[in-house]
Amino acid sequence: MGVGTFETKLEEEKARSTVQLLFKAARLLNERAIATLRERTKQPIRTAHTAVLPHIDLEGTRLTDLAAKLGVTKQAAGQLVDELVALGQLERIPDPADARAKLIRFSKRGRAGLLEGLATLQALEADLTTLIGAPAMKTLHDALAKIIHHEQTHTPNDR
Q1: What is the pTM of this model?
Q2: Per-residue model confidence as pLDDT tens digits over 100-129
Q3: How far is it, in rounded angstroms, from Cα 140 to Cα 155?
Q4: Of 77, 89, 122, 140, which has fewest CB within 10 angstroms of its CB?
Q5: CA angle 25, 29, 34 (to 5 degrees)
């Protein structure tokens, strides 16, 4: 199969795949949200930073647990945490359960940032609702909620 033929077949297969379209839409919306946040906050927020945030518990998360959730080394997770601490979004505090350990949690500024991030997502959602209509948006919301519930409650061995 020639390169041109392969590229054509690849693009056709990707266009037929609903999951591929979902991944691409999620990536594009994430990039738009990050660009909006950068503009609003004047902070150099990166995609890697936003990947960390959902894994930080409000009461705090240990770095080793964060690294495991992210699927990266403790050093890689530590670098991202260091950057977010420098941006004032996260802070390290002593772990009350183990004086030798630290917890990573949202700082006061970081908690405000979470609310600002959600406001940015609401604005994106309003744009999408205008684009596809309220009924389609409700259907999309319900379908995604069902997919998320399924993926969170079933182990790979259940499939």
Answers
A1: 0.78
A2: 889 999 999 999 989 989 999 999 999 999
A3: 24
A4: 122
A5: 150
